[in-house]
Amino acid sequence: MLRENTNDLLAFMAVARERSFTRAAAKLGVSRSALSHTIRNLEERLGLRLLARTTRSVGLTEAGARLLDTIRLTATEHPTYTILWPRVSELLRQYPDIKVEIVVDYGLRDIVVERFDAGVRVGESIARDMIVVPISPALRSAVVCSPAYLARHGVPATPQDLTTHACINMRLPTHDTIFEWEFEKRGQSLNMRVDGPAVVNTLALRLNAALDGVGLAYMPEDYAMPHIEAGRLVRVLEDWCDPYPGCHLFYPSRRQMTPAFALLVEALRYRA
């Protein structure tokens, strides 16, 4: 249904932005009468009057204005910078009336209680009462370090070998705990508690610490790959880093789909 109604949503956004059926129709390449018919169908389907029409101008009703309210999203660093923001920025360039607020956070927030429209997480950690939309392919993790660190300390052959290495830890705010490094190889799962000279709470600091030769760091593969390919980082334990479910957008099943939010969902949706 969402994809079928995309043209109606685009039409409403165009009229709301131009404040004119004539100018909006010209931008969309349709006739004024066809555009007016599209908007009437949308209003009938929603059961709301969205536009206040006069002989001289077109304005938004209160209900129409509400459809253009700010969309609030929450996500952790990695999907925000690699998936969410590139697509949101393109959407905002196309539809400058849409407003999006993004909160970068590791706290696994309750999006209903904290009044977010949607959140982003890996697929395996989303409540069952949410609508889930894939926004990335399967992902992999990587354990990396600088060539200088590897020359001094050698290559860990198994996750258990990490107990003798300097590891850069990540503290999660959810339970104020140190993140365990998660490994999987041919169906065998293993979580490791590691130790080292540094504990950080951002992905960027983990990367910088690894580049500076402080120790081994655990992070998303695509985040580290440019530095691996450039020779600034070396990857270890690759055979213990099987793919895991990719990132998903999630939102309450009872949420009313507004035109702006519907456009956002379609912009983020992953298509293989």
Walk me through what this model shows:
By secondary structure, the chain is an alpha+beta fold. It is built from nine helices and 15 strands. The chain has helices spanning 6-18, 21-28, 32-46, 62-66, 77-94, 147-153, 203-211, 221-229, 259-268, and strands spanning 51-53, 58-60, 71-75, 100-104, 118-122, 130-134, 141-145, 168-172, 177-178, 181-185, 188-192, 198-200, 217-220, 234-236, 247-252. The strands form five sheets. The chain has a five-stranded mixed beta sheet, covered by helices on one side. The protein has a three-stranded antiparallel beta sheet with strand order 13-7-14. A three-stranded mixed beta sheet has the order 9-8-12. Helix 1 (6-18) packs across helix 9. It is elongated. It starts with 5 loop residues before the first helix and ends with a helix. The model has no long low-confidence stretch (mean pLDDT 88).
Shape: elongated
* Count of helix runs: 9
Calculate the terminal CA-CA distance, rounded to whole Å: 20 Å
β-sheet strand percentage: 15-25%
Alpha-beta classification = alpha+beta
Helical content stands at 25-40%
Calculate Rg over CA atoms.
24 Å
**Low-confidence parts:** none
Order of strands across the biggest sheet? 4-3-5-15-6
Mean pLDDT: 88
SSE topology:
Blueprint: H1 6-18, H2 21-28, H3 32-46, E1 51-53, E2 58-60, H4 62-66, E3 71-75, H5 77-94, E4 100-104, E5 118-122, E6 130-134, E7 141-145, H6 147-153, E8 168-172, E9 177-178, E10 181-185, E11 188-192, E12 198-200, H7 203-211, E13 217-220, H8 221-229, E14 234-236, E15 247-252, H9 259-268
Parallel strand pairs: 3-4, 3-5, 8-12
Antiparallel strand pairs: 1-2, 5-15, 6-15, 7-13, 7-14, 8-9, 10-11
Helix pairs in contact: 1-2, 1-3, 1-9, 2-3, 5-9
